[in-house]
What does this fold into?
Amino acid sequence: MMDSLRKTLGSFAMVALVFVGFIFSSFSTLLLLSHNQLLSQHQSNMSTNVNETYGDDLEKALAKATKGKNKTLIIAIVNKAYVEQDVEGDGITMFDLFLSSFWLGERTRSLIDNLLIVAVDQTAYDRCKFLRLNCYRLETNGADFGGEKFFMSQDFIKMMWRRTYFLLEVLKRGYNFIFTDIDVMWLRNPFEKLSKNETEDLQISTDRYHGDPWLQKQPINTGFFLVRSNNKTVTLFETWYGKKDNSTGKKEQDVLVDLIKSGIIGHLGLKVRFLDTLYFSGFCQDSKDFRAVTTVHANCCRSITAKIDDLKMTLYDWKKFRSLEVNSTTNFHWTSHESCMESWK
Ligand SMILES: *[C@@H]1O[C@H](CO)[C@@H](O)[C@H](O)[C@H]1NC(C)=O
Ligand SMILES: *[C@@H]1O[C@H](CO)[C@@H](O)[C@H](O)[C@H]1NC(C)=O
Ligand SMILES: *[C@@H]1O[C@H](CO)[C@@H](O)[C@H](O)[C@H]1NC(C)=O
Ligand SMILES: *[C@@H]1O[C@H](CO)[C@@H](O)[C@H](O)[C@H]1NC(C)=O
Ligand SMILES: *[C@@H]1O[C@H](CO)[C@@H](O)[C@H](O)[C@H]1NC(C)=O
Ligand SMILES: *[C@@H]1O[C@H](CO)[C@@H](O)[C@H](O)[C@H]1NC(C)=O
Ligand SMILES: *[C@@H]1O[C@H](CO)[C@@H](O)[C@H](O)[C@H]1NC(C)=O
It folds into this structure.
């Protein structure tokens, strides 16, 4: 009895030992394999990261956002500072306000399908995915674009150039787009107010409008524009980006202003329309007419918190206007932009 039991146990132990040995050796093979895979993956990531290449991901994202829209989409670039909630206050972020405006605006809700959110850091990307929007993660070669970028700081300027480079890539791929800053409220569908004439290459917002859409001496604002993809606009963006290393202390917008001053519009045969603040309004110059206003940009403002404060009031004004009787004769005014005025002091 005991003997046979011992024998059984013995052979069981033997089998178990062999089995464990087998598992162990397979496991180490697996370990080795995954280690090699990691190595090669890492190497390939390293090599693709050296120069900024955009994979199929970008093409997929662009195709999705332009579905049924004739290769035209809306692009907004987002970083952590726009999506992160403060510990204090009511926790409303700039990104929340931006998205709210699509909900509160007139005929703007469906535009969310054509909006591509370009995230320059992981937090912004995660937030975008959480909201089930069209998201694209822009690699930034290890540069940190997460924090708040104060107007004209070194990082602010770097981020602006990165964005110009990305937009050039989109143009090269044959896509037209509206570029919008996150601090632009979309109160009406801008496609209804922008020119549909395809000979117009660029339609760009202004801080102040001087009454003539073709007058080149107007203070442009690169926070909102529609650009059509063609050889002329690709050359414009290439020339613009090409000035990056020869424009110390200037932000990309100033460089474009210089290019316009030096006559690039004529040289390239571009047709550029300067947008009226009556429709494409901002804090620098408020639209005089709530019945016409299409977008409101928190320009002439320095910090994110100030912009959030004053944009909340913009949405409040808008909701109040919308609740009025259709034929009300009430004369409506925008609340003054107190926080933004303070932000310069
Ligand atoms: C390399 O890239 C792949 C695919 O983009 C990603 O899944 C992987 O985590 C990356 N590996 C490293 C080490 O960065
Ligand atoms: C490509 O890589 C070279 C050398 O690493 C670098 O000097 C250059 O700036 C990179 N180009 C871009 C567009 O990042
Ligand atoms: C789509 O875009 C192409 C090229 O810009 C143009 O020829 C065509 O008329 C557009 N179609 C519509 C429906 O707008
Ligand atoms: C577009 O603008 C061009 C140049 O101003 C003009 O000749 C053409 O008739 C316009 N096209 C349409 C459809 O309005
Ligand atoms: C740009 O020009 C090239 C050559 O002149 C032409 O083949 C191409 O179709 C043009 N691209 C666009 C987007 O107009
Ligand atoms: C930079 O700009 C200056 C003045 O506009 C010009 O003289 C110089 O050649 C430029 N340098 C480069 C590298 O483009
Ligand atoms: C608003 O005015 C128009 C024309 O003056 C009139 O036809 C319409 O009935 C009015 N609507 C309301 C709600 O009073």
User: Anything to note?
Assistant: The pocket of 2-acetamido-2-deoxy-beta-D-glucopyranose (ligand 1) is lined by residues 41-42, 45 (CB under 6 Å). Residues 22-51 have pLDDT under 50 and may be disordered. The chain has two domains: 1-50, 56-342.
